[in-house]
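> example.struct
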């Protein structure tokens, strides 16, 4: 099934000039970039994005981290895009991420883990719409 999913290059990835490297890996895998932008999240926008985690102990730190610098949200399109992008990212904690994944290669720790990816069709729909209008996705 052709899916769309949301990726984000988090502040630690943008700060280290990893936008090109991440997009290269996505395109190399046969997936397509259908939208992209760069922006700085304010507290409210970061809290809204991570609302599902608001009861978690790491929520406050996560929001603070996500507002430290620009982020690069992008839409990925292709067959099974949601699972394939998560495979390219690797496990949430880079210590557990498989060799050759983005998090294994670049992430500092479980919080500063360089990239985000939607985890299911419903969250992908919400997250894509959180950053992009329909007409901005090609
Ligand atoms: P993402 O949603 O960013 O793609 P994920 O789905 O692998 O990552 P989630 O469980 O949704 O992981 O957590 C969202 C984000 O919250 C993680 O990517 C990470 O930045 C942060 N996070 C998750 N667990 C922890 C933790 N135990 N301590 C600190 N930060 C955490
Ligand atoms: Mg998640």
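> example.seq
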């Amino acid at each position: 099934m052709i899916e769309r999913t949301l990726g984000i290059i988090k502040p630690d990835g943008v700060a280290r000039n990893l936008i090109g490297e991440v997009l290269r890996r996505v395109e190399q895998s046969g997936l397509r970039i259908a939208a992209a932008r760069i922006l700085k999240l304010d507290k409210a926008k970061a809290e809204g994005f991570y609302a599902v985690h608001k009861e978690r102990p790491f929520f406050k730190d996560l929001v603070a981290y996500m507002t430290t610098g620009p982020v690069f949200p992008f839409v990925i399109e292709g067959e099974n895009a949601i699972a394939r992008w998560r495979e390219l990212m690797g496990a949430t904690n880079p210590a557990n991420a498989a060799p050759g994944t983005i998090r294994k290669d670049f992430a500092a720790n479980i919080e500063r883990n360089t990239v985000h990816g939607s985890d299911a069709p419903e969250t992908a729909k919400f997250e894509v719409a959180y950053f992009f209008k329909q007409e901005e996705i090609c």
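> remarks
Residues 33 and 128 are 12 Å apart (CA to CA).
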